[in-house]
Design brief:
The chain is an all-alpha fold. It has one domain. The chain is 72% helix and 3% strand. It is built from eight helices and two strands, in the order ααααααββαα. A two-stranded antiparallel sheet has the order 1-2. Helix 2 runs antiparallel to helix 3, helix 2 runs antiparallel to helix 6 and helix 4 crosses helix 6. It is globular, with a radius of gyration of 20 Å.
Length: 184
Amino acid sequence: MLAAIGPVWDGNEVWLIAGGGALSVHGALFLVFRNEGAVRERALWAAHVLWPTMTALGLVAIGATEIVRPEIYRQLLARPWAWPLALLALAGLIGAPLLRDLRAFNASSAFLAGTLAATAAGMFPVLLPSTLDPAFAITAAGAAAGEHSQSVALGWWGIGIAFALAYTAYIYRSLRGKAVASEH
């Protein structure tokens, strides 16, 4: 079974565990921000326990990435426009455990967004590298749809994003404030 999914240290497993930890902490910080009482206290405890664990796993993932795909960091360093993305991730990583409620949640959001954006900047233009031959890698140019398809998609994206933003604004407005557990 293990041979079917690949070697353990190809980096994906480490990133999967670290990413799962980061999303767990992010969810816990959201619950801290949006709740009062026992739910808030349990979520706060989970965030305090998970944050150092996620940070340690993230450092292991950075090391694994350096071993498996060192070009990601070289490309990131070669693109000064991408440095603020890595700094955003670092600021979020440092800020989330030091801040409270909404600010801690926003710092966690900055960490996730900065990490994803810096990784994408370091990988570009290769979207999916080939382990067999670089000629088989999927690049941004090779994966792009035709010009007409992109125009149609952009039009539909404009409509879809308008609905998504309107719905998000409606939900956040109608569910604003902290949730309080009822007696029954």
